[in-house]
Specification:
By secondary structure, the protein is of the alpha+beta class. 54% of the residues lie in helices and 14% in strands. It is built from 13 helices and 5 strands. Strands 1-5-4-3-2 form a 5-stranded mixed β-sheet. Helix 2 crosses helix 3 (28-44), helix 4 (53-77) packs across helix 8 (135-142) and helix 10 (171-186) runs antiparallel to helix 11.
Length: 287
């Protein structure tokens, strides 16, 4: 068997490194930068004692993402309004349990919850709960002992469990609810919207205000263009059914829903053009 080159070994682990960095940072550009930084280290530093390229590369990208996350905390805390991650398209696939767990870990709602963790807690949670790294491996990546990594993981897990949304596991029902929501919004049907919105749905305050808001959006021109000039597509965003609205091929809005018991409990609506750039570029997230 022909030995792999350094570049081939790195490329074999690129998707994994991006997946780790994106879950830690919630930013496509910063995750890609973290992977590029890992390549610079991989291609220039001596590695005579590296026995596991996977562990080495994940440790490298984790440290880079941690430094970026710590630097970003002050900016995000000063962000006007709720901070939302940059969304990414994901390819629809089988509904196997392992894929469902990965999809939940990268959902927009979960990334918002992870934003409330400390940088170290977030790193440990991602490496342990999502990718199954051992506490020894995580401790090595963070410069901590395995028991310290275990304690961090325990705190992070409790924090996430207390705040995580209730996710609807039935993807067919998620898609049906999404389609009903879009049809009611496009038709300005307040009553129809109210039937799919939970009473305490979050976007503004309460189901009635959300329903009126979405009905108004559906009939509001965008930069002189009518709703008929827009393209509204049901796509998979961050592992769940979502909606992408474009004008002239340029994304202007990405919308994802949290569904529980057949009704919408939370709406994540993103219209920041900087955060929609990856959707326009066709960047996808491997699950």
């Amino acid at each position: 068997m022909t030995a792999q080159t350094d570049a081939e070994v790195f490329e074999a682990h690129r998707d994994l490194m991006f997946a780790v960095a994106y879950r830690m940072l919630g930013s496509v550009a910063e995750a890609e930068d973290a992977v590029q930084d890992a390549w610079l280290r991989w291609s220039t530093e001596p590695r005579s004692d590296v026995t596991s390229p996977r562990a080495y590369l994940c440790k490298t990208v984790t440290n880079t993402a941690l430094n970026r996350l710590r630097a970003a905390r002050a900016r995000r805390e000063a962000y006007i309004g709720p901070w939302l991650p940059e969304p990414l398209l994901t390819a629809p696939g089988s509904d196997a349990e392992d894929r469902a767990e990965l999809a939940e870990s990268v959902s927009v709602a979960m990334l918002v919850v992870l934003e409330s963790l400390t940088p170290d807690e977030r790193a440990v949670f991602v490496l342990r709960e999502v990718f199954g790294f051992s506490y020894a491996e995580i401790g090595s990546a963070l410069g901590r002992s395995a028991p310290a990594a275990r304690q961090l993981a325990h705190r992070a897990r409790e924090h996430v469990q207390a705040r995580r949304p209730r996710f609807e596991v039935d993807r067919d029902q998620q898609r049906q609810v999404t389609n009903r929501f879009l049809a009611a919004a496009a038709g300005g049907d307040i009553d129809g919207l109210m039937t799919v919105l939970a009473p305490d749905v979050t976007l503004i305050t309460g189901a009635a205000k959300v329903a009126r808001f979405m009905a108004a959006v559906a009939n509001r021109p965008y930069m002189g263009m009518k709703i008929s000039d827009m393209t509204v597509a049901v796509v998979e965003i961050n592992g769940a059914p979502g909606t992408l609205i474009t004008v002239g091929g340029r994304p202007i809005t990405a919308l994802t829903l949290t569904v529980a018991d057949g009704r919408i409990t939370a709406i994540q609506l993103l219209a920041n053009p900087d955060k929609l750039a990856a959707l326009g570029a066709g960047r996808t997230l491997p699950l």
